[in-house]
């Protein structure tokens, strides 16, 4: 209730509809559309990886080991995972160093849409495998 009340106040505490007028500007609608698009893409990517993985784990005789391998990364702090992916995707990161071994040019992988989709999907895969597995 307080959230709704404060949404009708301007920065000076006066009653106003300006906050709601700003929400329906092109800039905010575009951000909302991108958020929905990214959420849908991450869900599709995560499901495409998680469903076959859960099916394989269900049929495997090493279920306990595979579940433990899948669950252990969820214990790692998200900040540490972020720094690990920065190390992988940065201009001097592991992936670009691998490209240099084959005399390929460096790519700007960090802070791209593709990198965001990969990292977000990686983070949510265990949380989708477990419900499918059960």
Concise synopsis of the structure shown:
This protein has seven helices and no strands. With 134 residues, the protein is mostly helical.
Can you walk through the features of this model?
The chain is mainly alpha-helical and 134 residues long. The chain has one domain. The chain has seven helices and no strands. α3 packs across α7.
Major sheet size, sense and barrel closure: none
Helix count, DSSP H or I runs of 4 or more residues: 7
Mean pLDDT: 94
For the termini, the CA-CA separation is: 38 Å
Helix-residue proportion: over 70%
How large a portion of the residues is in β-strands, by DSSP E?
Answer: under 5%
Shape, per Cα inertia axes: extended
Number of domains: 1
How would you spell out the order of helices and strands? Answer: HHHHHHH
Spans of 5+ residues with little confidence (pLDDT < 50)? none
Structural class: mainly alpha
Radius of gyration: 21 Å
Number of beta-strand segments: 0
Secondary structure elements and pairings:
Layout: H1 2-7, H2 18-23, H3 26-59, H4 63-71, H5 78-89, H6 94-101, H7 113-133
Helix pairs in contact: 3-7
Which features characterize this protein?
134 residues, 72% helix, 7 helices, mainly alpha
């Amino acid at each position: 209730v307080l959230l709704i009340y404060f949404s009708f106040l301007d920065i000076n505490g006066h009653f106003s509809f300006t906050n709601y007028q700003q929400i329906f500007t092109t800039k905010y609608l575009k951000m909302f559309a991108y958020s929905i698009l990214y959420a849908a893409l991450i869900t599709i990517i995560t499901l495409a990886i998680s469903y076959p993985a859960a099916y394989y784990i269900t049929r495997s005789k090493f279920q306990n080991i595979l579940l433990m391998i899948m669950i252990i990364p969820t214990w790692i702090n998200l900040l540490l995972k972020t720094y690990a992916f920065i190390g992988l995707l940065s201009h001097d990161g592991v992936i670009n160093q691998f490209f240099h071994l084959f005399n390929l040019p460096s790519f700007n992988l960090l802070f791209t849409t593709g990198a965001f989709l990969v990292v977000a999907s990686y983070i949510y895969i265990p949380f989708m495998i477990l419900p499918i597995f059960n």
